[in-house]
Amino acid sequence: MPFLSDDMAADVREFGERLSRRLKHKPKFEIAPLVASLDDLSVDQDVEALQCVMEALEAADGFDTVSAHDARLRIRFYLASCGHPQAAAAIAGETAAVAFGDVRDHSDFSLVSRALAWSLVAHTYGPMSRNALLQWPRGRVGSDLRSYAREFEAAIKAPEDETKQPEDKSASSETAKDEETDAGEQAWQSNKPKRAVIVFKAIGNDSTSEGKRVVSEFRKLLNVRLPLPSVPDLVRVRTRLVEEYPYAVAVIDDLLKRLVGRDNVRLRPTILVGTPGCGKTRLTRRLCEELAVPFELVSCGGMSDSAIGGTARRWSSGEPSIAVLSIRRHHTAGPVVILDEIEKVGTSRHNGNPHDVLVGLLEEETSQRWFDPYVESACDLSHVSWLMTANTLSGVPSVLLDRCRVIAFPEPGPEQLHVLAPRILERLYVDAGHDPRWATALEAHELSALGKNWRGGSIRKLQQLLESLVEARERHRPRQ
Questions:
Q1: Which of 429, 345, 432, 326 is nearest to 384 (CA)?
Q2: How far apart, in whole angstroms, are the C-alpha atoms of residue 294 and residue 226?
Q3: What is the CATH number of domain 229-408?
Q4: Could you tell me the maximum CA-CA distance found in the chain, to the nearest angstrom?
Q5: What residues have CB less than 8 Å from 480, skipping those under 6 apart?
Q6: Whole-number Å distance between alpha carbons of 47 and 129
Q7: What's 111's DSSP letter?
Q8: Is 0.70 surpassed by the pTM of this model?
Q9: pLDDT in tens, the chain (480 residues)
């Protein structure tokens, strides 16, 4: 079942308040720490508060055993949904136990893929930070879990589908019906959404010493179907992005509407054009984070050769193209490559030019059979998405513009100050390694001072003003 109001924080708060009220009806000294931790949880729904409740549950005496088990399981589920690896492993075990019973009693495999997906989350999400809600974007775990579960479900069903045999039919009608079935099957297969594709089918010149080395590097990817990122709940993605970028609603809608009805994330080559500091680069990064798609952020300032398309292995500096590097790093066929400030690419063609290479990578026909000079074989890069930012289109060749969607990125106005300033302030505290709750809400006189010095435009300037404000706060903070 979904979280209350589709919001984990609301669900956690409601759970803490209800259980606290129930326990207060029968006050016992032994459960006083548990009640206090539940009251704290109703105020702050972070990982630290959840862990405090878990510790109190473990230590509580005089609390019904069944209720304690249910409460611990629920807290573990909250922690697992935040990316806590140990909690995710525990939920995987609980789910596997229920799945085993379903398989044994009813031959129902529906929960098996879910148990495996939780196991992969536990393996993937690594050591916990002090506060996992800060480390992972909201909804990231749920999105990954659904994606993993779909992949496991497809893998479980594949052998069953392959072993199915056609029923015997009479000789008079068998040929005609088989031909009709084959035609329908071929049509269905051609329209069936792809969940994984083979990117690397061979390594060129694999008998040479360099070729053997490259084969070793790509062994785990050769002739392996690599997953494509699934499209998450776009309504939630839009809601979160609009909260951060209320002035760029039209841009967000333009980017997301192309994903409606799709099974896999694949964005048309797009250039966001706007003034320096308006937030376009950060929006592209946040878009990828909310879509739970791996990405590479590449600065184009000063780039003046064709290295973006790879370098031949015969050179000591030989390396694959950026798209191939991203696929190899993230083990997915559909990462996103963000090229920041595409207009700042050098114009020299002494060692090639990035713009010339991009033309081929952005064309679906050529990207399906992209010859990577390091792999020395054709690679399917047609599922890689390309997002670019630019301060101006001057210097971007028309042949590249013809292959891209160009979207004007607006500047934030002074009316957005009350929305942008608190978020930037919180981010400054987080970047400094502090709990965001230390970011005391901006007071009226502080907002007024910011408004006098920032009339809209560059968010970078607003951030500098807020940095100065934080420094002033620290200087005048009372010493203990």
A1: 326
A2: 13
A3: 3.40.50.300
A4: 96
A5: none
A6: 10
A7: T
A8: no
A9: 677 777 788 888 888 888 888 887 766 767 788 888 888 888 888 888 888 888 888 887 666 655 777 888 898 898 888 888 888 888 888 888 888 877 777 667 778 888 888 888 888 765 544 444 434 555 678 777 887 788 787 777 765 555 444 444 444 444 444 544 444 444 434 444 568 899 999 988 888 888 888 898 899 899 999 999 999 999 999 998 998 888 899 999 999 998 988 889 999 999 999 988 888 999 999 999 999 999 999 888 766 556 688 788 877 778 888 999 999 999 999 999 999 988 887 665 555 577 778 888 888 888 899 898 888 899 999 999 999 999 998 888 888 888 899 999 998 888 878 888 888 887 777 777 666 566 677 778 888 888 888 888 888 888 888 888 877 777 766 554
**Kind of pairing between the strands at 270-273 and 405-408:** parallel
The backbone torsions φ and ψ at residue 264, rounded to the nearest 5 degrees and listed phi first, read: -125, 150
Helix, strand or coil, per DSSP, at residue 336: strand
Report residue 392 as tokens: 């101006």
SS3 26: coil
Q: Count of alpha carbons within 13 Å of 189, Cβ hemisphere only? A: 6
Assigned token pair, 309: 């398309």
Tokens matching residue 238: 């839009």
Any idea where the domains of the chain sit in the sequence? 4-158, 229-408, 414-476
